[in-house]
Amino acid sequence: MRNFQIDHTLKESLTYHSETFPIETCVDRYDLLPDHTLNCHWHDEFEFGLLLSGELDYSISGYQTRLQRGDCVFINSGTMHMAQQAPGCHNANMFIIAFSHAFLTENMDGVIYQKYFRPALKNPFPGFVLTGESEVREEIASYLTELYQLETEGEQYELLCISLLCRLWGVTLSYLNRISPDLGIQLIDRTSEERAKAIMYYIRQHYSEGITIESISRSANVSQSECFRSFKKYTQKTPVTYLNEYRLAQAAKRLRESSASVTEISSACGFSHSSYFCKLFKEKYGISPTKFRKS
Asked: What are phi and psi for residue 128, nearest 5 degrees?
């Protein structure tokens, strides 16, 4: 499992195993995540994923796809994405590898960056999902499987990792150029995405206050209908659902780390009635706030 560090804009700061070798590899185990969900986030790094087991409902820039074992995803730099274990499924595990273009080239004036990385970074396409039987899916899955099986402490790990990543990136660029020479695949609606980020930022900054749909909409300078549309596209949730879940998460944190009463925590997290807070908390975590604290 990776150690998630998300800021108020939903940007994830990856923690590398070694700062001198800036690459992140891990397995996301959805059975261990709250609601079996990896909530909406983004990062500067490129990311590849290989579903090792189970099924996932995977969303890239608001476009959702059901993934089966062996399916692959590619997330472009800066793209919002999220995933949830499919209903009725258990033990969904996904291998993730994320890296910056600087991992393979630090010279932005050199031919490697200009020819092989700049096209991806300068075009607003979110990425792709590879499902079903296809030659490119099998090829990308095979490279990801080899990367997954590498021993991080093994002899020549770094060289083998670089070699596999270069081949993986080469296949990825060939695929992108084949299906869209200008890399214009389902171009990201940056305006809509920025609205969703603004709404998330506002909720995280003001969750302890008595905020309303009207104030949330005003924060993004949109109508209430557009607020719901933009937000749900990227998070699969309404602003109200997201607000309540964020409040509950903050309340759980305070229950673990402070000695404040349940009523005090309820009020501090924006709930006007402690009875309503306790009801939502038990629905979310399957246990009352008091028992949660004791356990």
From this structure: -155, 165
